[in-house]
Design goal:
This protein has ten helices and three strands, in the order ααβααββαααααα. It is mainly α and 227 residues long. It folds into two domains: 80 residues, Winged helix-like DNA-binding domain superfamily/Winged helix DNA-binding domain (Arc Repressor Mutant, subunit A, Orthogonal Bundle), CATH 1.10.10; 137 residues, Up-down Bundle (Four Helix Bundle (Hemerythrin (Met), subunit A)), CATH 1.20.120. Helix 3 packs across helix 4, helix 5 packs antiparallel against helix 8 and helix 6 runs antiparallel to helix 7. The protein is globular, with a radius of gyration of 19 Å.
Amino acid sequence: MTIAEEDLVTMDGPVERVNLTEQVYEQIIEILIRGELKPGDVIVERRMAERLNASRTPVREALGRLEAEGLIYKQAGRGVTVSPFSTEAFVELLNVRQLLEAEAARLAAGRIPQSRIDAIRQALHQLAEKTNPTLSEIWDIDDMLHGEIADAAGNLLLAGMIRDLRRRTHVFNAYRNPTRYKFSAEENAVLLDAIATGDQDKARQAMKDHIEAVKVAVIDRLSGASR
């Protein structure tokens, strides 16, 4: 059943529409993450609805949410346009992530089952063995680690905010020459080890240091510097 058909047959009203809007929102985010839409590209509501096999109402509502998040904007005479993403905006995003994820790491310390710790460690090891991992492969493992920490913190609102900010990070990286993105298995392993110890202060500092390293690396990459 298509999204549009489901919208027609449901009896749940507003609740179902919210679910449809969320589905469409996630699909458009994925399109942005894959780099299929770039800053300055125009999004035509009707064409996007056809592409996603959805009715125009959830597409319009999803675009409204993306506009509120600053990922798109309405431009006079051109309609809805993918927003430019400045280095300054990205650094601000990472600063907020640093605050939220450091607290999540503190709360999650010692709360992730050993089986999950081992699975993440194995995934990190396998990724490190790849000569040229794709950005998608890196994101998958990165989300595994950070998502597990966010969930283990035990605060649904905090976890949701972290996932939202991480999605925006992914979108930004898709805009900015992803072939130069580097993955550090060592940094991620240090973070994982700190969480596994159960030491809250150590886990918090490890996450803070981890995101600080990401921030420095991104600034260097965008400025053309090399380390």
